[in-house]
Amino acid sequence: MVGFRSLKALVLGAGLVAGLGVQAPALAAGGEIHLPDTRFSFDGLFGHFDRASAQRGFQVYKEVCSSCHGMHQLSYRNLRDLGLSENEVAGIAATVQVMDGPNDEGQFVERAGRASDRFHAPFPNEKAARAANNGAYPPDLSVIAKAREGGADYLHALLVGYEEPPAGMQLGAGMHYNKYFPGHQIAMPAPLNSDGQVEFHDGTKSTIDQMARDVSQFLTWAAEPELEQRKAMGVKIILFLTVLGGLAYAVKRKVWADVH
Amino acid sequence: MSIGLHKSDFANPVIRWVDSRLPIFTMMQKEYGTFPTPRNFNYFWNFGALAMINLLIMIATGIFLAMNYTAHTGMAFDSVERIMRDVNYGWLLRYAHANGASMFFIVVYIHIFRGLYYGSYKAPRELLWMLGVVIFLLMMATAFMGYVLPWGQMSFWGATVITNLFSAFPLVGETIVTWLWGGFSVDNPTLNRFYSLHYLMPFVIFGVVFLHVAALHITGSNNPLGIDPKGPQDTLPFHPYYTAKDSVGIVAYLAVFALIVFFFPNALGHPDNYIPANPLVTPPHIVPEWYFLPFYAILRAVPDKLGGVLMMFGSIAILFVLPWLDTSPVRSMRFRPLARPFFAVWVVSFFVLLWCGGKPAEEPYVTISRVAAAYYFLYFLVILPLLGRLERPLPLPESISLPVLRGGGPLPAGAMSKPMEKA
Where is the signal peptide (chain A) (predicted)? Predict the structure, then answer.
């Protein structure tokens, strides 16, 4: 059956090539952009979140990003997953004012935020957001790590990728040059623009790279809060299936022993 | 036919009581217990059972997802994210369901490949094969509508592109599209009807699968040698031999499935589908799910819209008449030295189309798609019909239990003039 074996190899090879081709980033058309590999703690089969980094990342989000970007899928209570205590979460939630109602008198009233509230939105609607941002709409960041080719690596690269445009390149009005953004022209000005912009409580030096790493860690947690549970369960299930597969194969051999 | 109780042989009195009134136990015993099955199956014969398991997984996860999903343009995206975050094991249900669709197509493509290589579509299994093609079409429709439900950018724009294909038909095209949409663009009525149909279709598939299996149990299974069993020495009872062998396949399948669901759950999807649908922003490349890419490439290979649509549907419709296009009486390609390389090139052309479908519609991909699409059709329409006349098949073994004919032994009497005992 030499013919069949070579056919199998051919088909397998073609399948692999096609499979890899499908995975090629959609960015390809805008010129090949190579993202630096940031090696996050959540990569790999046993990946987990670096809680300290994600907490710092939340601080970066709160003090920098949240002035333009909402995260409406998240509630303050979710922050407990990052190791914040119930009191800390309540304190963070209480810093925002939430319009609630109607109450028994039919009135809408402002009250301090609670842990059960969704993250406070910076703008009441998309039109207001565009009006305040030169016509550009700062996207919601709840699932941004899943919504961009390259995920956290891309987010980190984008935040450190601002530089002067190459000579001869004409930027549009109000646009900024970013070497990792598809097309290189981005409406968002460099959000992380100086070392020490955010003061971390744990003493970590807040370089631009560090802040970008931390906020990418935070945004990945926000997009995939199930990641740790998922990977831990996956390891157990693969181990279980390996054992079960061995048993199933042994049974099959035993059953077939008399006919081979 | 005598009226009265069915004569049941079961020892357990409760089972016997039921069985003599409704002989489902006798039927199960006949169809899945003692059912005579060729003894020489290889692991390619696992994939029918795997497809069945996969269908059940899709229905089971889908029912629980439906309990938590909201089919409304303003709420669908957030309801899916809520499943991922706040529903107990919702992430597992959704990732299993989304990747289960990919697994389903992997399994079914291998199942179809096996049928093509071993000639399982030939007499007397033509209707069995055609029912399989019906299942494949229903699967494609179901998967397409399912991908629309999360209401992300690719959901919306995929739905727009694919439904618009029907506008290519003269006279009735526009009417069909309006009818599909329930309006004049892809909008809330579209999402609602797709949700309803997406829930309905798997049960239709289930019905056709029943017919597919029923037809299989009339003709019996094909086998790697493509010759008919000549007696009990060529077959084994389905249980325990093939229940044991299928179990091995099922565990291997689950391991691959688990690897994707737990470690690469978004690798087969498109990141743009995590951006909520926006009718005002067209994504730079609209690509369907990977399992549609070969057909998408055929669609785009034709410069004319209607021509492209016809070619795309034709690439699947042609499978219905395959039993009559392939004129060779020899089923298994093990004994078809010429057909084998031509088929290998066909498989490569399928993967090339898959690859081209994911690329932008520009050179060199357009030319490559055209060459691959041309061969795809050439294989069915010209090569297979001619080969049956031109090819000199290898001598067929006398029987499944005596398959060894190494070193070009003497031809069995009449092998050339009458390659199969029973066509």
Answer: 1-28
Shortest CA gap B249–chain A (Å): 9
B187 is annotated as an active-site residue = no
- Smallest Cα–Cα separation from B321: which of B370, B396, B373, B380? B380
pLDDT score for B349:
97
Dist. CA A3–CA A10, nearest whole Å: 11
> Residue A200: which domain range?
2-74+118-225
CB proximity B31 to A under 8 Å? no
Which of B41, B157, B263, B368 should one mutate to test binding to chain A, selecting the residue with the greatest count of A CBs within 10 A? B263
Q: Which residue has the higher pLDDT, A134 or A71?
A: A71
In eight-state DSSP terms, residue A165 is P
Buried b or exposed e, range B371-387, using 16+ CB within 10 angstroms = ebbebbbebbeebbeeb
Please give the pLDDT value at position B174.
93
The pTM score is: 0.90
Cβ–Cβ gap A147/B334 under 8 Å: no
pLDDT at A9: 52
Of B95, B245, B251, the CB nearest to A245: B251
Phi and psi at A52, nearest 5°, equal -60, -45
Has residue A153 been placed in a domain?
Answer: yes
Into how many domains does chain A fold?
2
Model-level ipTM above the cut of 0.95: no
CA-nearest of B313, B259, B245 to B49 is B245
Collapsing DSSP states into helix, strand and coil, what is residue A198? coil
Shared domain check, A162 and A177: yes
Residue of A nearest to B262 (CA): A234
Asked whether residue A259 falls in the same domain as residue A178, the answer is no
Shortest Cα–Cα distance, B1 to chain A (Å): 40
Does residue A42 belong to any structural domain of this protein? Answer: yes
My answer on whether A243 and A167 are in the same domain is no
CB contact under 8 A, B348 and A233: no
Closest residue on chain A to B153 (Cα): A147
Q: Are residues A175 and A258 in the same domain?
A: no
Q: SS3 for A99?
A: strand
Q: 3-state DSSP call for residue B170?
A: coil
> Active site residue: B97, B111, B198, B245, which one?
B245
Residue A92 belongs to some domain of the structure: no
Q: Taking residues B57-73, what's their average pLDDT?
A: 97
Q: How many whole angstroms from its chain centre is CA B365?
A: 26
pLDDT of residue B402: 80
Q: What is the pLDDT of residues B329-353, one digit of tens each?
A: 999 999 999 999 999 999 999 999 9
Do A186 and A252 belong to one domain?
A: no
Length of chain A: 260
A:B CB pairs within 8 Å: 126
> Do residues B176 and B165 lie in contact, with contact meaning Cβ atoms separated by under 8 Å?
no
* Mutual angle of helices B305-317 and B126-148, in 10-degree steps: 130
